[in-house]
């Protein structure tokens, strides 16, 4: 059930981003879309790692890996937002 929720959130994020790009009439090249899709997939991986470790009963491992992957995910999202989607 948790995987379904994570997948639904990732799909919603992608479609909201697609709608944002169409509203702002941006032209995004293929490599920028590739980086965006990889970023969403990495965010899914981060959530799956955290919840997988929690399900196994390894709370400390979930915290450590969540912090490592979470920091990378946030940095990736900020860079995407700044350099790909923040055009005026």
Please characterize this protein's 3D structure:
The chain has 3 helices and no strands. The protein is mostly helical and 88 residues long. Helix 1 packs antiparallel against helix 2 and helix 2 packs antiparallel against helix 3. The model has no long low-confidence stretch (mean pLDDT 90).
Brief descriptors of the model:
mainly alpha, 88 residues, single chain
Spell out the helices and strands N to C. Answer: HHH
What is the makeup of the main sheet?
none
Quantity of strands, as a count: 0
Q: Tell me, what's the shape?
A: elongated
Number of domains: 1
Q: Tell me the number of helical segments per DSSP (H or I, 4 or more residues long).
A: 3
Mean pLDDT reading: 90
**Assembly classification:** single chain
Helix content: over 70%
Topology of helices and strands:
Layout: H1 2-23, H2 30-56, H3 59-83
Helix pairs in contact: 1-2, 2-3
